[in-house]
């Protein structure tokens, strides 16, 4: 009999047309634990929609390096989902939750993503391997490779990274790069070893260095903004925001009788969930409808957001914070489930 509970690897390749950037979402079909690689800020809503519709419990948001051509949405996704952000240790991004060493592995469900340090385009460039796939960022591209003329770029390091770290994988290993500008979506190690004009065939280190030192390319259009923002995980919440990580439904229960008229509890679950039982006096604004009520939310001195377990409240908190609201306490580590377990009063 077929084991219907056996996990399968689910993989989606997404694209940002303006910057030619690929984003990769993957997860375990049974546990729904997953991760995303190189998310673009302008595609935050699209990426979050995929995560929510597919029911992914996002564990990690990963950048292959400190990008110079686009701004990451790592910080935004971390705020929205509770995932941890990760980069290679040489990135020196202080806001990252995890700085990966060569060989480190991030687990999601029964799968693991292995970090491979591949410096050369930048010092912090990290490629990743899982399930027959290499995610090479800007190190190895389809019939090309990353440039080496800024951000600690070094053609000798890049040559070693590609030939000694990536080309040693089996020929059939799929290659998924960080960018492509000609409509190509994937390659494999066999093809790149044979046909990559910069580093394939019998290319020598000396010839490769000569090629890389004479590309004479213009700087990326957004390099100043992108590098600065990406060193801050791509996103900073507005000054004055309130996100009290340790605030729980038990804390809310203690405050409930003391709330002022200018303070409000907002339940972001669906109307059906709300009608089955909610915090007395709370207002129901289902996730996705917050923009319709933004002026009302803004009018309160303080708003307490909650849902069933914290994930949806965190998402709404992020969306409101992006619009400058700084009066929100997000209860992101518990929710109505804990309220009912504690036998606190419930309205229906």
Explain what this protein looks like in three dimensions.
With 348 residues, the protein is of the alpha/beta class. The chain folds into two domains: 9-230, 4-Layer Sandwich (Metallo-beta-lactamase, Chain A); 249-341, Rhodanese-like domain (Oxidized Rhodanese, domain 1). Helices cover 26% and strands 23% of the residues. It is built from eleven helices and 18 strands. The strands form four sheets. Strands 1-2-3-4-5-6 form a six-stranded mixed β-sheet, with helices on one face. A six-stranded mixed β-sheet has the order 7-8-9-10-13-14. Helix 2 (74-81) packs across helix 10 (311-322). The radius of gyration is 23 Å and the shape is elongated.
Instruction: Summarize the helix and strand pattern as letters.
Output: EEEHEHEEEEEEEEHEEHHHHEHEHEHEH
Spatial shape = elongated
CATH architecture title of the largest domain:
4-Layer Sandwich
Structural class: alpha/beta
Mean pLDDT: 91
The top-level CATH class of the largest domain is Alpha Beta
Task: Report the span from N to C terminus.
Answer: 45 Å
Main sheet strand line-up: 1-2-3-4-5-6
Radius of gyration: 23 Å
Uncertain stretches of 5 or more adjacent residues? 236-243
Classified in CATH, the superfamily of the largest domain is Ribonuclease Z/Hydroxyacylglutathione hydrolase-like
Helix proportion range = 25-40%
Largest sheet descriptor: 6 strands, mixed
CATH topology of the largest domain: Metallo-beta-lactamase, Chain A
How many structural units, i.e. domains? Answer: 2
